[in-house]
Structure formats: structure tokens, C-alpha cells
Write a structure and sequence with these properties.
There is one protein chain. By secondary structure, the protein is of the alpha/beta class. It has nine helices and 18 strands. A ten-stranded mixed β-sheet has the order 6-5-4-3-11-1-12-13-2-14, with helices on both faces. The longest helix is centred in the middle third of the chain and has 22 residues. The radius of gyration is 22 Å and the shape is globular.
Length: 512
């Protein structure tokens, strides 16, 4: 049964007495944003997942609020991350599509970011794991063997240990503070997304070298660590990652950051590679789950969550640390590697029964887990909230939390009043609607009752491999979310509602 709490905002922002930095001035709350990759609405045990245990995510839900109508702004990675970190819808700006590994910085240094919010409030700021928002000044011009002239330090992050894009894209090295981590001068790095380097093997031409995973579609270019990728790369040497160690690497660096800054307020953006392809978890998890590698990857994600929670506990920081757990978009099962994820679901629904999935205009594309915990902020425990929550609002919410002013002209789509909903689950303060972006850039409007999908052209199913409905139709669609979800299109029955929601989109598009 859903419970709703209506707590005054002032009460939510006063830390408990034992968290005070001095007798007169309470310490600012730490903020940890745990951001999974391709984790679906139904992929955690606390959201009804079958065949996989997620005790650490469950713990967060038991000790905080679990939202059932929480949304990423887009059904793919780069635009959803851009929106969350800038408070501006990605569809307002060109060049925010899914980025190659050698993309130039998509968030520009002059833009105000979530990290800038915390930096301005005197926080230590750190980013770990998947970035996928570009590095360097422009695409395909990076010198990966030198300090990048534009990186996360220009966006408000004091420290960063990241992957340039995703594990299925080159370059397959970590970038630490704008420089390749563990750089090997004997193996200079070159990257190209158009042509291969002479003599370099590929998954297409040298399948015998694919010792760990083979592609199911695409993903057949340069081979690193026995797995072929998207894009071409040579060099790297000792700096090349091993997929089975990615979670350990980003988690260990995150734990060091927490320990280093335990005596001051900090903001940590912890963006995991799990459960994105290629899925090849550490041997501690691999082969342990009945759903195969995808199930193993979910378990590995939960392990990372547990490591962070344990670090906060052991340092006495848990009470005054706001933890938010979510995902960048909905799930996909076969996204390019033959890892048996489709065949081994065994009754598990990654979307939790929602229609569609990653890339889709349907709910499975953008409705994701959202869990919030902050004991000292009086966030209620064990609450399930149906309130509409959108990641676009999190920048303004954090500015409100820390008392920071957003510069004029920035984060125009982000609403500070969302903080009350986020910290209380109160449906009375929820957003009136959220916007969702599909892979083809078509938009949808979700209100507490309705879901409107605008007309768009495109195939009804994703054409390159995943078995996912796109939701693209040449006519408007309307669904009553309080009854049958997206099973029955009722646009012809409620033309006035269609017109009203279409007008919302027109108004949003006209705003600058």
C-alpha cells in the first residue's frame, strides 16, 4: 500500500543533531548519486525481480523511499545523462545523441552542471565510472597520450576516474583527471571510428581471438581483452582495462574518495558500467546466477552498492548522506553480444512488465528505479511512492538543498520544488507531468493519469537486433495509465486529452 507524507521542506533539510559539524552550524549533507546503466524498472529485487538477489538495493528501499513513477528523461544513455547533469532537456540541443567514444565534450565548460552546484557550496566533488558525454574540445581530435585540454575538471568535478564512453566502445582505458590512468608510454593510443589501423585484428575478421564474448550483432571491430567493440583502437598496453575488473576499479576509487573526504561534505557521482554490454563480471559473480551473465551483472551492481553503503557506515557518514539510486534508461537484453541473456530470463521481466525497453517511446524505455535514502533529512523509511519524479529536476533540487542559486539562463527545465517530492514521496507536490524522449527523438508526456506519445515515423520494432517495440506510430497515442497501462490506445475516445497533452509538448518546445 502506498503511503504519502507531507513534511515541511524546512524539516527535511535540518540534519540530525549528531551530524552537526559544530554546536551552532550543522554539517551539510553528503550526496551520493548511484547511476546504473541499462538497469530496468524490474531488475531489482525490491521492484519485483525474479532469479536475482539485490540485498543492498533492498536495504536502501527499506531505509528510504522507493518511487514507482521515476523517470530518466530519455531512453538512451547520452541524452539522459546530459539532461540530469545540466537540468536541460537533451532534445533542446544538437549533438546529444548516443556518443561515440571519441566525441568531444557534449556538456561544454561554460554550462552550469550539478557538480557546479556542489562545488559552489564548498563540497568536494567526484565522478566515477561511465561518462559517455565526450572528452576534449571536439570529436576525433583527442590526443589520448597527453592531458586532455577539456575534461571533467572543467565541469565542476575535483576528481574523476571514468570511462570515456561505455565498455562496448573504444578507447578501453580509464581516464583519471583528464589523463589516461596507468598510461603505458610503450603503447601509444590511437582511436578511429571510421577505419581500422593496419594489422589490428577485429571481431569480424578474427573471430578466433574472441576468447570471452562474441557479438550477436554489430560490436565486431577492435578486440580488447578477448571481446570485440564498436570503433577501432590500437595501443594502450598496461592501461587497457579488463572487463571483469571494471566494477572493482571504479568502486575502489570511489571508496578512496569517500575516505579521503570523510571530514568534509562531498558529492559523488557513481555511474556503473553494469548492466550494460559487454557483460563480463568478475569471477566472484560470473556463472553464479540462473540468468547468466546479465543476472551476474545485476548482482555485481548490487555488490558495488553494498560496498559504498558499508564505507558510509564504517565512517559514521550514513545518517547524513543523501543516497539516490537510479538508472540512465530502461533495459535491453540482447544489445550486441551472444551472452544468452534472452534465453535465460526464466520468467524475469527486466521492465517489470512495462511495454518496450531501452530505445523505446513506451514506458520501459524511461521508467526506471528511483530510491532515495537520507536518515538525517527525515526521509521516511520503507515508503513506496507513486509520485511522478524526473531526473531533469535533480540539479535544481540539489541547488535548493545546498542553498545555491542557478545562474540565469541555465538549467531552465529543472524544478527546485521537486526536492520536496524527492525527500518525502509526497504526491501532492509531484510534477504535473514528465517528458520522455525515445531513440528517434520523439517525445511523450506522462501525467499521473495519462501517457501521450506524439506521432513519429519509424519501424514498430528495433531493427538492429533487440526484441523491443519502439512505440513509433504515425498517429498520436493515448493511454490511461491508471487502468490498462499502455495496452489500449484510447486516443480516439479522448480527443480533448490528446489536444491538451499535445499542447504541453508544443509549449515546451517553444520555450528557450
Amino acid at each position: 500500500m502506498t503511503k504519502s507524507y507531507c513534511l515541511p521542506l524546512a524539516a527535511l533539510l535540518v540534519p540530525a543533531a549528531h551530524c552537526a559539524a559544530t554546536d551552532s552550524q550543522p554539517r551539510k549533507p553528503n550526496v551520493v548519486l548511484i547511476y546504473a546503466d541499462d538497469l530496468g524498472f524490474g531488475d531489482l529485487e525490491c521492484y519485483g525481480a525474479k532469479n536475482v538477489a539485490t540485498p543492498n538495493a533492498n536495504r536502501l528501499a527499506d531505509e528510504g523511499i522507493r518511487f514507482t513513477n521515476g523517470y530518466a528523461s530519455a531512453a538512451t544513455s547520452t541524452p539522459s545523462r546530459y539532461t540530469m547533469l545540466t537540468g536541460q532537456y537533451a532534445w533542446r540541443r544538437e549533438g546529444t545523441d548516443v556518443a561515440p567514444g571519441n566525441a568531444g565534450m557534449i556538456i561544454r565548460p561554460e554550462q552550469f552542471t550539478m557538480a557546479d552546484v556542489f562545488k559552489g557550496a564548498g563540497y568536494a566533488t567526484g565522478a566515477f565510472g561511465k561518462w559517455h558525454l565526450g572528452l576534449g574540445d571536439s570529436t576525433a581530435t583527442q590526443d589520448w597520450n597527453a592531458q586532455l585540454p577539456a575534461a571533467l575538471g572543467d565541469l565542476g568535478f575535483d576528481y574523476s576516474y571514468i570511462m570515456a564512453a561505455t565498455a562496448d566502445r573504444v578507447p578501453c582505458v580509464f581516464i583519471e583527471n583528464g589523463h589516461v590512468a596507468d598510461y603505458d608510454p610503450t603503447a601509444p593510443i590511437e582511436v578511429d571510428y571510421h577505419k581500422n589501423f593496419p594489422g589490428e585484428p577485429t571481431g569480424r575478421d578474427n573471430p578466433e581471438l574472441l576468447t570471452k564474448l562474441k557479438p550477436s550483432h554489430g560490436h565486431n571491430q577492435s578486440i580488447v581483452n578477448g571481446i570485440s567493440r564498436i570503433g577501432y583502437m590500437r595501443g594502450g598496453g598496461k592501461a587497457l582495462w579488463k572487463d571483469e575488473n571494471i566494477a572493482d576499479s571504479i568502486t575502489s576509487h570511489a571508496l578512496s574518495f569517500i575516505s579521503k573526504h570523510a571530514d568534509e561534505p562531498f558529492f559523488m557521482y557513481f555511474a556503473t558500467n553494469d548492466v550494460h554490454v559487454p557483460r563480463f563480471p568478475h569471477d566472484r559473480f560470473r556463472g553464479k546466477n540462473p540468468m547468466g551473465l546479465r543476472g551476474d551483472a545485476i548482482a555485481q551492481f548490487d555488490w558495488s552498492v553494498g560496498k559504498i553503503l558499508h564505507a558510509l557506515d564504517s565512517l559514521g557518514l550514513s545518517d547524513n548522506t543523501l543516497v539516490i539510486l537510479s538508472s540512465d534508461n530502461g533495459p535491453v537484453v540482447d544489445d550486441g553480444y551472444a551472452d544468452m541473456a534472452e534465453e535465460l530470463l526464466n520468467g524475469h521481466s527486466p521492465t517489470g512488465g512495462l511495454r518496450g525497453g531501452k530505445y523505446s517511446a513506451f514506458e520501459g524505455g524511461t521508467r526506471v528505479p528511483v530510491i532515495v535514502r537520507w536518515p538525517a533529512g527525515n526521509v521516511p523509511k520503507g515508503i513506496v511512492s507513486e509520485a511522478l519524479v524526473s531526473q531533469v529536476d535533480w540539479l535544481a533540487a540539489m541547488a535548493s538543498l545546498t542553498g545555491q542559486r542557478i545562474p540565469r539562463g541555465h538549467a531552465l527545465d529543472s524544478r527546485a520544488e521537486a526536492l520536496t517530492t524527492l525527500l518525502s514521496g509526497d504526491m501532492a507536490t509531484q510534477r504535473p507531468y514528465v517528458l520522455e524522449q525515445a531513440n528517434n527523438k520523439s517525445l511523450s508526456v506522462r501525467t499521473p493519469k495519462w501517457k501521450y506519445i506524439e506521432p513519429s515515423r519509424g519501424p514498430e520494432m528495433i531493427p538492429w537486433g533487440p526484441k523491443i517495440e519502439t512505440g513509433y506510430r504515425p498517429h498520436p497515442q493515448l493511454y490511461d495509465m491508471t487502468h490498462s497501462g499502455e495496452l489500449e490506445d484510447v486516443a480516439s475516445k479522448y480527443p480533448d486529452v490528446v489536444a491538451e497533452l499535445a499542447e504541453i509538448l508544443a509549449t515546451e518546445r517553444s520555450r528557450q
